[in-house]
């Protein structure tokens, strides 16, 4: 029980604080009554001293020495019953106590010391009993989460249930592995982790191995505990809440949760390693559309470094090796896969890869350009196919379809982007390419609420050879309105109608859109 709480909730509310007001958060472990001449021989740290002042020194210097000695012992404070033997603490004692940050309280003589002892100690015992009860509840809740839960979201929810504070588990790059709050922002978590690691590693930040309070950019405090595995920090467990004050129980619960999370992630890593040994099964399942998106499977994927909400390009390296591979071909493929993995790790990208025959597939985050990977493999005579940006489980399978469509067009030593060959394939009559070209250049202009004004504008522009005056007449709109629409079209499609190549592609896409409508 802290001294300020004792003053608020016990008979000590009748006392007057005369010194040490800035040190009222000290923890009381015992209440001691001493009026012995050698008072310091009978006291221990954490005790609250009750005295009548009968043997309290009168001389100013002796008072100062007494206060310093009591402060050095580690007393919580001194309560003096007034005015029977002493009217007040001496000014010398008050001045010294303020210097030593030792609380001094003056209590009316009528209040019995036995009443104070009973009231304060009873509350301390009740607090300890409640702490034991809450500690047992936390222990049971987290143990049940460890035994019955199959993902870290269950652990976060268990922490929230036990402590009534939001809980969050993230990887070392801020990827959310489990959260009690479904509205948590993964991008914000990535920014926070990046900020923490600007000056030192997470291992150094959480050294010594005790939870730390971190202040977010928005000013909210959160308590974080490192998830460690063989001395390496592999994640963080966070506790946070608006206006939250963290207690010792929060710290202990967080330490317990970090151990459970470490065991859980170790298990997931073992599964992931096993999948890698079995032939990159996780990535292969994503690309083949056979990935079962269960909560535990999604979490295992996140542990591997994949995020369902993140955009990725599917990349495929086609080795210049005949099939079936020779022993030397197998060896070259292994070395190439290792080189790609090391290049990705050097760029702090999780090496999410799959190997099959003379092909090496990998997932590249949308914010990373494929050129860096390409530079590490082009000298071997292979070719690299790059898909459009896709999200989620279904998106990875679509990305695989993109690169498979590029396979017949790949040339050794060349990097081929899906968008680069989409238009030629559409012109050659590929129905899938025509559909994708329409999806890319026409369909984004449609608006379910506002209609298809922009699509009609593109179709008319293409029909009128992109002559603005003629187009405005056909659409029966003012030329300024048309120019506004053209600007929106250019912005939405990321092209310029001043570019002849862009105009040609848009004109072809518009005609294909019209033909597709006629067919239906």
What does this structure look like?
With 520 residues, the chain is of the alpha/beta class. It has four domains: 119 residues, HprK N-terminal domain-like (Udp-n-acetylmuramoylalanyl-d-glutamate--2,6- Diaminopimelate Ligase, Chain: A, domain 1), CATH 3.40.1390.20; 126 residues, Beta-Lactamase; 137 residues, Alpha-Beta Plaits, CATH 3.30.70; 87 residues, PucR C-terminal helix-turn-helix domain (Arc Repressor Mutant, subunit A, Orthogonal Bundle). The chain has 19 helices and 15 strands. The strands form three sheets. Strands 1-5-4-3-2 form a five-stranded mixed sheet. A five-stranded antiparallel sheet has the order 7-6-10-9-8. Helix 4 packs parallel to helix 8, helix 14 packs across helix 15 and helix 17 crosses helix 18. The longest helix has 36 residues. Belongs to the CdaR family.
Helix-strand layout with pairing:
Blueprint: H1 3-9, E1 16-19, E2 30-33, E3 47-51, H2 60-73, E4 77-82, H3 91-100, E5 104-108, H4 113-148, H5 152-163, E6 166-171, E7 176-179, H6 186-196, H7 202-205, E8 212-215, E9 221-229, E10 232-240, H8 248-277, H9 281-288, H10 295-304, E11 311-318, H11 327-346, E12 353-356, E13 359-365, H12 371-377, E14 383-391, H13 392-406, E15 415-417, H14 418-427, H15 431-441, H16 453-463, H17 468-475, H18 479-493, H19 500-519
Helix pairs in contact: 2-3, 4-5, 4-8, 5-8, 8-10, 11-12, 14-15, 15-19, 16-17, 16-19, 17-18
Observed structural traits:
about 525 residues, alpha/beta, Udp-n-acetylmuramoylalanyl-d-glutamate--2,6- Diaminopimelate Ligase, Chain: A, domain 1, Beta-Lactamase, Alpha-Beta Plaits, 4 domains, 5-stranded mixed sheet, 5-stranded antiparallel sheet, 15 strands, elongated
């Amino acid at each position: 029980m802290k001294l300020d709480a004792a003053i608020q909730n016990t008979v000590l509310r009748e006392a007057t604080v005369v010194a040490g007001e800035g040190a009222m958060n000290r923890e009381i472990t015992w209440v001691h009554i001493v009026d012995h001449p050698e008072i310091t021989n009978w006291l221990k740290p954490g005790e609250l001293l009750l005295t009548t002042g009968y043997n309290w020194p009168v001389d100013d210097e002796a008072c100062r020495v007494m206060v310093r000695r009591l402060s050095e012992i580690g007393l919580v404070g001194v309560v003096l019953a007034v005015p029977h033997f002493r009217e007040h603490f001496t000014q010398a004692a008050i001045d010294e106590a303020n210097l030593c940050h030792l609380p001094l309280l003056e209590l009316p003589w009528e209040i019995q010391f036995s009443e104070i002892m009973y009231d304060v100690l009873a509350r301390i015992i009740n607090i300890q009993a409640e702490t034991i009860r809450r500690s047992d509840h936390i222990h049971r809740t987290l143990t049940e989460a460890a035994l019955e839960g199959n993902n870290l979201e269950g652990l976060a929810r268990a922490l929230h249930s036990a402590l009534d504070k939001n809980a969050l588990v993230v990887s070392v790059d801020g990827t959310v592995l489990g959260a009690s709050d479904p509205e948590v922002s993964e991008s914000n978590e990535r920014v926070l982790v990046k900020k923490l690691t600007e000056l030192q590693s997470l291992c150094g930040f959480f050294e010594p191995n005790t939870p730390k309070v971190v202040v977010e950019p928005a000013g909210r405090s959160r308590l974080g505990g490192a998830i460690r595995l063989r001395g390496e920090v592999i994640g963080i467990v966070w506790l946070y809440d608006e206006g939250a004050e963290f207690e010792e129980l929060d710290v202990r619960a967080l330490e317990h949760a970090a151990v459970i999370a470490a065991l859980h992630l170790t298990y997931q890593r073992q599964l992931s390693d096993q999948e890698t040994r079995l032939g990159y099964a996780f990535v292969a399942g994503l690309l083949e559309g056979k990935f079962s998106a269960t909560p535990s499977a999604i979490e295992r994927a996140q542990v591997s470094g994949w995020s369902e909400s993140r955009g990725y390009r599917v990349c495929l390296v086609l080795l210049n090796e005949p099939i079936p591979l020779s022993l030397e071909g197998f060896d070259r493929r292994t070395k190439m896969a290792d080189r790609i993995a090391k290049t990705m790790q050097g760029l702090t990208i999780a090496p999410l890869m799959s190997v099959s025959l003379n092909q090496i597939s990998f997932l590249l985050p949308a914010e990373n350009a494929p050129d860096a990977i390409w530079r590490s493999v082009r000298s071997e005579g292979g070719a690299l196919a790059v898909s459009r940006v896709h999200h989620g489980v279904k998106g990875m399978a679509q990305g695989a379809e993109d690169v498979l469509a590029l396979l017949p067009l790949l040339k050794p030593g060349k990097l081929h982007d899906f968008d680069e060959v989409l238009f030629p394939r559409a012109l050659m009559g590929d129905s899938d390419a025509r559909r994708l070209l329409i999806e890319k250049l026409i369909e984004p202009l449609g608006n379910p609420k506002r209609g298809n004004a922009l699509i009609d504008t593109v179709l008319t522009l293409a029909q009128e050879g992109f002559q603005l005056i003629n187009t405005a007449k056909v659409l029966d709109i003012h030329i300024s309105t048309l120019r506004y629409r053209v600007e929106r079209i250019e912005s939405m499609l990321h092209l310029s109608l001043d570019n002849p190549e862009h105009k040609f592609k848009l004109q072809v896409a518009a005609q294909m859109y019209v033909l597709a409508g006629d067919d239906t």
